[in-house]
Amino acid sequence: xSEERTxxxxxxxxxxxxxxxxxxxxxxxxxxxxxxxxxxxxxxxARGSALDADLAVSAAxxxxxxxxxxxxxxxANYLHRLADLIDENIERITTVxxxxxxxxxxxxxxxxxxxxxxxxxxxxxxxEAYESRRWAxxxxxxxxLRMPAxxxxxxxxxxxxxxxxxxxxxxALAAGNTVILKPAEWSPLSCSLLMDLVLEAEFPxxxxxxxxxxxxxxxxxxxxxxxxxxxxxxxSPKTGRRIGIAAARNLVPFTAExxxxxxxxxxxxxxxxxxxxxxxxxxxDAGQVCLAGTRxxxxxxxxxxxxxxxxxxxEKHVLGDSRDDDTTxxxxxxxxxxxRVEGFVQRSLEAGDTLIYGGERLMxxxxxxxxxxxxxxxxxxxxxxxxxxxxxxxxxxxxxxxEAIELANSTEYGLTAMVFTTDxxxxxxFGLAARAGTIWVNCFLVRDLTAPxxxxxxxxxxxxxxxxxxxxxxxxxxxQVKEDTTHG
Length: 488
Prior knowledge:
The chain is built from 15 helices and 22 strands. The chain is α/β, with parallel strands linked by helices.
């Protein structure tokens, strides 16, 4: 048992796991540093082992029957209390996540952390409002019922860790499952704060657990445990495949959101002020947003005008400290990730792609990389076909609607797509033809929590959001009753 805490921007954050409503330490730790200043060590975090994973799953398994037996309303009360506590602690959570992950502080405060509270409220309310499908057939009355599935493992990425964890954990808890959360090792601290709020909300022991650690160690042990009945993951296709294999061995339903390479298609009839404004936003959060439209695909007749407008807007970006309101582009999360982004750009230029602007890191001792735009030599270029996950966009042109659709659908990814046009019929044709889980027309990042979310191709497996998430975190059964023919 451990109550070790570290001071992060004036906020005391526990560095251990959270299992059965108590803090637990490990025999070893790993360092957590701030992307804002890599010389600043924020904490030594408990490095979870197979033993820690076993303890967490055991706690979740023991707590499951009583949690599943609660009424939907009773579980919703816990989720609403937790949402209220998140709202009361937005400043503390924002301070910690900004230092730990370096997303813009203002964005975290006003949009991202506040969304976490909405996640819990939305799924509590959706679970309460659920109406079973009922029908009569073959002389029976039929009802589809949801059953809580069991202990659930949620593994989340390092970008927006607090909000993305709640996006997955909220429906799992609302559906009656117990949860073991494993946050990414590059930004683990805000999820530890979430567990403090779970305790304050008086969740029963074992219902909501946290295991810190390295993916290949703690994460691998969690997803391999045969007692786990649901797994949800967000991260890379490589890791997603490994988790999928582990899930298949135990016949465990599995959802995965595995990144994107979204097309950003602009037709000549588009509102260019709007289109270029949204295109410049693709550099926000240093491009570390899986939903972003990173492939700009622009009609040839407006090539020069679009580029001129986009370049002018991009030059207004300010790279700096994420806590400064003037900053619009934050640093990358980790030196290894900076090296990865640099490698993509260097290989692209060595292969003959054209650099339109950017292409350099800002300083030798920082993690900032310039907003970069590259015109590939052809559509098979690595910079087009692989996810960079940094402030790097590609620029291509097209001459016909058919060519635009062909380019949009030309990668293995299929998470999001964007199209800008004032022609409603053209937008509808593109929307029907584009291969992506979410398609935005003349907008970006508009999210409805009741809508399905997920990807096609290597962007993922399954759908979450709204009733789609609640169905995934449940076992569905059909209840059939023979019609009473003995009376009347």
